[in-house]
């Protein structure tokens, strides 16, 4: 009992260690998750504000360049001459050069476009502008918003038409109205085309933990290619943290932090704990498994012995156990098995004798009845004497060494002698055919196994029909199973009688006194004696179709029990 107690404690300790390991790993992972979340949240907020401040300063620098451009006296005069249609080609060229020198001082400015009220616009890059004069400008829906501005820039929508579609680099366009410096008279319109160089200092690569985007008031990202816009939408949907910081009234910076990175870091913490603790756990499991096998092996062996006993096998030798209590139990159990085996064999012999004692009078009665009918016919008196002599041989076979098994060959000879007697009575009303290989004729089976089956065919077919009844016996061996098939035609069997017959060939069936008297005991005796000799390795099956009755005996020869010699 001490070993059992120790096993319980060892099992409890191993399970407790495993639970503690899981709980500690989860606690460390959750703690790491929230700790990193708080620190990253503060970092994201500070960085977003810093990026917004830097971009705000950068945008103010761009606005200053734009202000210096349109407030320049030469630019003002050129716009007024254009509106009056007084500018020469040379003057326009000089104005172009002046605007180019003013706008190229900042890398984020891709183009600065100034539209006079009349005439062609001034700009740096000819290949990106899609509107060629102020008349086309006034047709745009967003133009009213610009014309109402008294100061400052406004952000144009993404699909503004000012920039030619298909340009690889994304642009954002800011527009405003130009007033004369000496009055509030409108003399033109100015547009700033800002490209991605404006936010090149902000990390936008796929591996970045934090990502920042310049958006308008509707949270629509600017200065992004189509692929980067999809990435922004994914970040909006899956980003764990989001912070916003205003640049001005039109723009703001949105910072995202990837949820996946935070989860990866937490999982790494859990994995590190598991890796560090796994050797200790494996060692504990290994030691406990050895103890469990050492203690449970005798118990499992006893359980297996119990299952074999349930199947009727009492010839078992129990192994020796190192556990004293279990070993003592095994010794007592072995003694009990020996006594049960002796009693079982005695009971088997008693039941075999009882069954044969029922069968012999039944067979004797039928044979004597045949001889009786022959004696009544004086011309067949000599045949009657021959039948008496044959009957004595049959009785000698059935009564001599009643407990000893017979062979298939001896059973075939016995059936032939029995049918010889019956042929004297029924003459040519039946014919008999047997096909049994010689290698199967040495198989041991109970005495009087075949004769009651053939007698059943005589009784239920030949006696009720004047036609010739064919009685056949065939045998074969396949896959370790020997099969004997008896068949006869002109059989008369009702469905309920067939079901009752099948019910007899089951383990649970036991005939009562009424059934024995009304249905006979022949076929059931055959079934019981086969079971006593072969146990679960023998079975009987019956089939009936179109007045053809068939009975099949199957015997497994590989299993324990009496086998083919």
Description of the molecule:
This protein is of the alpha+beta class. Among the domains are: 63-193, PAS domain (Beta-Lactamase); 340-556, 2-Layer Sandwich (Heat Shock Protein 90), CATH 3.30.565.10. It has helices at residues 2-70, 73-83, 89-103, 134-137, 143-147, 226-238, 259-310, 324-376, 381-399, 408-426, 450-460, 495-504, 513-519, 522-534; strands spanning 109-116, 154-155, 172-179, 186-194, 210-216, 239-246, 251-258, 406-407, 430-435, 444-445, 469-478, 481-488, 538-545, 548-556. The strands form four sheets. A five-stranded mixed β-sheet has the order 9-11-12-14-13. Strand 3 (172-179) and strand 4 (186-194) form a beta hairpin. It is elongated.
- Mind summarizing the main beta sheet? 5 strands, mixed
CATH homology-level superfamily of one domain: Histidine kinase-like ATPase, C-terminal domain
Helix content: 40-55%
- Distance from N terminus to C terminus (CA atoms, Å) equals 49 Å
Run of helices and strands:
HHHEHHEEEEHEEHHHEHEEHEEHHHEE
The CATH architecture of one domain can be given as: 2-Layer Sandwich
Gyration radius over CA:
54 Å
Strand arrangement in the largest pleated sheet: 9-11-12-14-13
Q: For this structure, what is the CATH class of one domain?
A: Alpha Beta
Percentage of residues in DSSP E strands: 15-25%
- Unreliable segments of 5+ consecutive residues: 1-7, 203-207, 559-565
- Under CATH, the topology of one domain is which? Heat Shock Protein 90
Number of helices: 14
Mean pLDDT: 75
């Amino acid at each position: 009992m001490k070993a059992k107690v120790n096993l319980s404690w060892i099992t409890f300790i191993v399970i407790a260690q495993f639970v503690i390991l899981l709980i500690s790993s989860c606690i460390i992972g959750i703690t790491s998750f929230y700790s990193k979340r708080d620190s990253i949240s503060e970092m994201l907020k500070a960085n977003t504000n810093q990026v917004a401040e830097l971009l705000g300063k950068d945008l103010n620098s761009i606005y200053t360049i734009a202000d210096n451009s349109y407030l320049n006296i030469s630019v003002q005069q050129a716009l007024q001459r254009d509106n009056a249609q007084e500018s020469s080609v040379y003057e326009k060229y000089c104005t172009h050069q002046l605007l180019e020198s003013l706008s190229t001082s900042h890398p984020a400015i891709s183009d600065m476009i100034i539209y006079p009220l009349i005439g062609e616009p001034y700009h740096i890059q000819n290949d990106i502008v899609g509107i060629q004069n102020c008349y086309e400008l006034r047709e745009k829906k967003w133009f009213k918003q610009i014309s109402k501005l008294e100061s400052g820039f406004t952000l144009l929508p993404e699909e503004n038409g000012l920039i030619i579609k298909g340009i690889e680099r994304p642009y954002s366009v800011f527009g405003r109205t130009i007033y004369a410096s000496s009055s509030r008279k409108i003399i033109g319109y100015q547009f700033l085309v800002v490209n991605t160089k404006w936010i090149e200092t902000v990390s936008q690569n796929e591996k970045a933990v934090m990502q920042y985007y310049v958006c308008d008031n509707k949270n629509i990202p600017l200065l992004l290619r189509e692929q980067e816009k999809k990435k922004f939408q994914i970040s909006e949907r899956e980003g764990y943290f989001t912070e916003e910081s205003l640049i001005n009234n039109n723009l703001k910076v949105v910072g995202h932090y990837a949820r996946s990175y935070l989860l990866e870091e937490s999982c790494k913490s859990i994995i590190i704990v598991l890796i560090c603790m796994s050797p200790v756990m494996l060692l504990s499991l290994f030691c406990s498994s050895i103890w469990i096998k050492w203690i449970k092996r005798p118990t499992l062996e006893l359980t297996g012995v119990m299952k074999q006993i349930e199947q009727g096998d009492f010839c078992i030798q129990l192994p020796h156990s190192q556990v004293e209590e279990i070993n003592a139990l095994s010794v007592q159990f072995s003694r009990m098995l020996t006594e049960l085996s002796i009693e079982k064999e005695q009971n088997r012999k008693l039941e075999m004798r009882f069954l044969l004692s029922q069968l012999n009078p039944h067979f004797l009665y039928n044979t004597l009845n045949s001889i009786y009918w022959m004696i009544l016919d004086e011309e067949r008196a000599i045949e009657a004497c021959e039948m008496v002599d044959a009957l004595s041989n049959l009785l000698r076979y059935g009564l001599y060494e009643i407990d000893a098994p017979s062979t298939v060959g001896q059973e075939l000879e016995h059936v032939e002698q029995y049918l010889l007697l019956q042929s004297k009575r029924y003459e040519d009303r039946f014919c008999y055919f047997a096909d049994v290989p010689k290698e199967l004729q040495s198989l041991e089976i109970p005495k009087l196994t075949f004769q009651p089956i053939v007698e059943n065919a005589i009784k239920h077919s030949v006696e009720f029909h004047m036609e010739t009844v064919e009685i056949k016996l065939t045998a074969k061996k396949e896959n370790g199973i020997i099969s004997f098939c008896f068949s006869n035609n002109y059989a008369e069997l009702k469905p309920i009688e067939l079901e009752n017959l099948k019910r007899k060939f089951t383990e649970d069936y036991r005939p009562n006194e009424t059934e024995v008297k009304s249905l006979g005991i022949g076929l059931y005796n055959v079934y019981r004696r086969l079971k006593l000799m072969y146990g679960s390795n023998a079975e009987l099956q019956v089939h009936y179709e179109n007045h053809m009755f068939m009975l099949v005996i199957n015997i497994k020869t590989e299993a324990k029990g009496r086998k083919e010699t």
